[in-house]
Amino acid sequence: MAVIIEKDKCIGCSICRSNCSFDSIEMVESIAVINHGTCTQCGLCIGDCPVQAIYKEQVEKHENCDNLSQYSGVMVFAEQRQGVIQNISFELLGEGRLLADKLGEELSAILIGTDIFGKVEDLFKYGADKVYLVEGVGFENYRTEPYCYAMEKIINEYKPEIVLIGATNIGRDLGPRIAGRVVTGLTADCIELGIDEDTKLLLQTRPAFGGNIMATILCPEHRPQMATIRPGVFKKNDPDSSKKGVLVRVHMSISDINVRTEVLETIKQGKIIDIQDAEIIVSGGRGVGSADNFNIIKNAAKELGGIFGASRAAVDAGWIDSNYQVGQTGKTVAPKIYIACGISGAIQHQAGISKSDIIIAINKNPNAAIFDIADYGICGDLFKILPILVEELNKVKN
Ligand code: FAD
């Protein structure tokens, strides 16, 4: 959908060049020329041109633009690793259930793996009405080609209206490739989803422009509407053992697929503590001051039976490993108690903690933004307050 300037019509007034916010237009021999490498196709120049010499190229419509009504239901990619269904899959089923109920449609899950049939029941328990199961040798470990092939085939055949994928390493590889193959849009790293009352379109909200605003993105003309969602954003429902569903076995063989990669060996990293599953997180920011000082945060987390976290400033300073970073470019967490110490509460940090049940903030600046979202705010020096807070919380716990 490139923006085109008709050379014959251009009068060389250069209004478009002056108004282009991206410096993507230059004058060559008194004719405006677009640099397609930097043009964002925002289309502002189209309205600016006094002689209508600029237009947006129309792309041929893909078949899934014309038959939107054929698409129905919410479909979740059920991610498994070594035969274990990942928490994100249950979180997506919880949210998918809400969306499907709002639309009055079905919630399904795609499960791909080897000897994985035993896990289908879990997907029903967590809300799926239907499970599409691709099971066979060669599907045990995630590999791009077979998983993309399977997903594309199922989406094209069963035509879901919405597809949700976890924004995990696997989902971030899979999601855009599938969207490209089925010719639709994808909103990556959503932190909120909803259904528009009037249009029934999926409202896909994610941080934009460096996290300074939340943008709600729509995909009105293509299907399915696809989104990746970060782990920890949605809470999983309690499993309901009485819930049953329909199993659809989708037959495909790895030999049908041109697979160029082979998994030779899987080496497990040492135990990585996943702060996304923690019920109590004590996090430290730049206000902690140094790597040595961070021990106060680590000890507090240990004493409360929780895990420590950090702001990006603390990670960038090299005090803490990036696995513990909370926020837009770190982890999204949803603990029962989140204690933010010496963290100012930038919007990018808030994006990762807003689903916490209780936020306690300790900051010596009474105007710190963290106090705007904290349930309990304590203004003062974290080195004095945190030990007292831990002692008091432990009294309540015990
Ligand atoms: P500061 O903003 O410097 O705040 C330090 C706070 O400590 C201050 O409020 C100060 O009053 C307080 N303080 C100082 N001493 C004490 C004391 N003794 N006792 C109590 N309080 C004290 N940030 C994240 O955290 N996570 C992300 O994922 C993330 N992603 C980003 C993505 C993008 C695209 C961008 C542009 C930024 C991102 N950031 C992220 C960075 C973010 O904008 C902030 O710069 C960062 O969160 C600031 O970290 P901080 O609150 O620890 O430090």
Distance between the termini: 63 Å
State the major sheet.
7 strands, parallel
Q: Could you estimate the helical fraction of the residues in percent?
A: 25-40%
- Gyration radius from CA atoms, angstroms: 25 Å
List the total number of helices: 12
- Please give the order of strands in the largest beta sheet: 11-15-10-5-8-9-16
Low-confidence stretches: none
Large-scale geometry: globular
GO molecular function: electron transfer activity; flavin adenine dinucleotide binding; iron-sulfur cluster binding; metal ion binding
Binding site for FAD: 286, 311-312, 325-329, 342-349, 363
Cofactor: FAD
Protein name: Electron transfer flavoprotein subunit alpha
